[in-house]
Write a structure and sequence with these properties.
about 65% helix, mainly alpha, about 325 residues, Mitochondrial carrier fold, single chain
């Protein structure tokens, strides 16, 4: 008989075996969590400068009609140059510590949960990959929301001459957590989570489902050796395109909700929630306002998806081979 690949776990596809398979192979959950966290943290180190630029572009011209504000950032390369020349090279890695914390928590939970649903066969049902990916993303986004909040604040901070959006003026990651807690309490650390959960649900569902499907397709086409990294690389590139198209509007709304200032009653000064933000952006900036920063979103997401999915797939393959 033939052993079929189970999506994200790189098992030996189309390999003859002497006896029936014992079923889906799963890693020890804490190990799967660790591998997912390591994979996405490794990718984050390289893509964080693009995340800084994406955040600035999405906050630029907030709730203002096109042409009525000064554009400090005009594209990915120009924005990278402006940030680097004004804030220095360290400015390109603003919020890196919070970003690593977010990636480790969110993706450790997300990828670990998804691989578990895959191992028990939930992803084999019709729509199973989409539902499992969305559920995994929602869980990861909720747990890691405070880290994303601080990351957004820190990456928006800069000198007045190129500042966009509200400036929170935190002194660092720890002081940001303390400041938010003292001002808004525990619930303040989860402010903006109503934008983060749908953002990551959509992105996670499209990323994991398309990666699984693309990987199976490339494997069946036998373009590469079954154990080649090129199989995961090709699938991750396809997945990156899908994530960019589906997630950008949710990403813009999430960034706006996280970065908005709050009043004395601990309520957002600009938006009441996800739907209110969506309506206000469309009314003042037009539909294209929801796609601000789409190019840096793709430029960041494509390599991030490629790196994180590739590293995770390779690490899990090695762990499975070591275990068996």
């Amino acid at each position: 008989m033939w052993l079929k690949s189970s999506g994200l776990a790189s098992q030996a596809p189309l390999t003859p075996v002497a006896r029936p398979s014992a079923g889906p192979r799963a890693l020890w959950p804490p190990l799967d969590f660790t591998l997912g966290a390591l994979a996405c943290c490794g990718a984050c180190v390289f893509t964080n400068p693009l995340e800084v630029v994406k955040t600035r572009l999405q906050l630029q011209g907030e709730l203002r009609a096109r042409g009525s504000y000064q554009r400090h950032y005009r594209g990915v390369l120009q924005a990278l140059w402006v940030v680097g020349s004004t804030d220095g090279l360290r400015g390109l890695q603003k919020g890196l510590t919070a970003a690593l914390l977010y990636q480790g928590l969110m993706n450790g939970v997300r990828l670990g949960f998804y691989s578990y649903t895959e191992a028990v066969g939930l992803t084999d049902a019709p729509g199973g990959s989409l539902i499992s990916g969305a559920a995994a993303g929602a869980l990861g986004a909720f747990i890691a929301s405070p880290a994303y909040l601080v990351k957004t604040h820190l990456q928006a901070q800069t000198v007045a001459v190129i500042a966009v959006g509200h400036q929170h003026n935190h002194q660092g990651v720890l002081s940001a957590f303390v400041s938010i807690y003292q001002r808004e309490g525990v619930m303040g650390l989860w402010r903006g989570v109503n934008g983060a959960v749908p953002r990551v649900m959509v992105g996670s569902a499209s990323q994991l489902a398309t990666f699984s499907s693309a990987k199976d397709w490339v494997t069946r086409a036998q373009w590469f050796d079954p154990h080649s990294c090129l199989t995961a690389l090709t699938a991750a590139m396809i997945s990156g395109v899908a994530v960019t198209i589906t997630m950008t509007p949710f990403d813009v709304i999430s960034t706006r909700l996280y970065n908005q200032p709050v009043d004395e009653f601990k309520r957002g000064r600009l938006y009441c929630g996800f739907v209110d933000c969506l309506m206000k952006v469309c009314a003042t900036e037009g539909i294209m306002g929801l796609y601000k920063g789409m190019m840096p979103v793709f430029v960041r997401l494509a390599p991030h998806t490629v790196l994180s999915m590739l590293i995770w797939d390779v690490l899990r393959q090695r762990a499975l081979l070591y275990r068996h």
